[in-house]
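Exam revision sheet. Question 4 asks you to relate a sequence to its structure. Input first:
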Amino acid sequence: MIVDIELEQAIVELLRKAVVELPLDITKCLTEAYEHEKSPIARMQLRAILDNIDLALKTNTPICQDTGIPLFFVSKSSSFTHNLSDVLRKAVEKATPLVPLRPNAVDPLSRTNPGTNVGEGMPAITLDEHDKPYTDITYFPKGAGSENMSRLFMLTPSEGIAGVKRVVLEAVVEAGGKPCPPTIVGVGIGGAADIAIKLAKKSLLRPLGSRNRDSRLASLEVELTEALNATGIGPMGLGGDTTVLGVHIKMAACHTASHPVAVNLQCWAARQATLRIHDDGRMEYL
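Answer key, structure tokens:
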């Protein structure tokens, strides 16, 4: 059985890995975008992004100066008994000067910054339980450039799929170059207002290049990706063929008189890392 201090140290390393080492599926999609991009300016931007990713690894330096706010998604085994909230807070406090992480978490009214990335409701933890013999802790730092472009639309049921397409296109076009495209577009459909927003964010955890298991949503993801790339916004908003790397959708049942749609954008630096803690005490990074 691992003790809290061992878990805390493992999570500090998890935070370092997340902000320094971009997941391979993201790097692969960015490389493919560079190879297929026709615009010289867009290719220059994508080349700079790829060089940035390589330099971050070589120097063990965060990929972006905005290391985001600390968001955790946890799938917990029934055997996991640690006080996770306490461990995560301590790990974030320790990692902030050590990695380092930019101290982004502030009081929303006074704007006071404690310098620790810890505060009321922060780090934020989304906790689910499962019946598997391990616990997964995914760190998903979210920068302000992309997060500020989040949108929630409360459509009428009669607007249907056409309404979904319209508002997703509207959200990405209005965002332009602000979220540092090429982006990944997370879309949440259904539930209630808060559920749709959570679905949109959770959809961004899915590996790029994977297809939705619901054939209707898989088809919609492909259609929206093509439509958004046809806008010509391009890398960093400077024009080109690559505005988005992909569109991911999650769905939930909703009220018969309601049709919520949420859009949550993720910048090209789509950072995340997962620590798996097996019930027998073994730990591994995924």
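Marking note for examiners. The chain has eight helices and nine strands.
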